[in-house]
Every structure is written in C-alpha cells, then in structure tokens.
Amino acid sequence: MKNLLKLVPVLFLSASILVACNKDDDPIIKSEKLTSVSYKPNSMTGKVNVAFKSSEIKLNPTTAKATFTIKKITKDGANFTNPSKGFKIDSKGKVHSETGHKLLKGTYVVTVSAKDKSDNKIIKTATVKITIS
C-alpha cells in the first residue's frame, strides 16, 4: 500500500502534463515558418490544347508547409482573366492545364500565392512564365 501511495503523485503529475499539452504545443519542436518560394525553372513552353505542368514550387525552408492559389495572371503584359478551362494549381504548387484548355497563343505570367499552413499571416509569392505557342 505504501508503494502505491508513492506512485499517486507521479501519476497525477503525468496526467496533468498530458492534459495541458495538445499536439501543436510541443515547446521543443517548432514548425518552420515559410520564408520564400520560387520556381526552378521559372519558365516553360506549352502548346494550344495540349496539357502542360510546371515544376513543383520550391519552399524555403524545405520543411515548411503551405497552401497555394493563383493570385494573378497576365497575358502579353496585360491583366488576364483565367477561363474555367485555363490555368490550375495543385497541392504542390504546380501550375498546369488539361488537354483541351482554352488558353490561346501568348506569353503568360502566373503569380502564385503560398500561405504558410502554421501561420496564415505569412504569405509569399512566386511567378512562373508560360509561353503557349
């Protein structure tokens, strides 16, 4: 019985620590914040009605996590409204379009916005130039 009474404070302390911490509270392991994004290469060529896909966006630091959206598109230097069968972006930041897309010949600059998953106030942008011939 004496041994059991000695364990009660230890069990209580352990339970208190487990309850006080949630999965995102680890004081030792911090998630890395997004500092920059880029495309390498940051240009590519495609053809009318033929599917294409850019390289994956590079995150810095590489362990950061982000979500991606297309922020802005220009065509031949002028603002461009993306058609429903136009540019798309996947979860890895690859800008792409499907076969039968409605993009005409020209030079497009797609600006991608990357929002840090652990701190949505951190937003970085990168551009990729896509020439459709």
Automatic annotation (TrEMBL):
**Key word Transferase present in the record?**
no
Signal sequence residues = 1-20
Q: Which PROSITE patterns match?
A: PROKAR_LIPOPROTEIN
Q: Which UniProt keywords apply?
A: Signal
This protein is called what? Answer: DUF4625 domain-containing protein
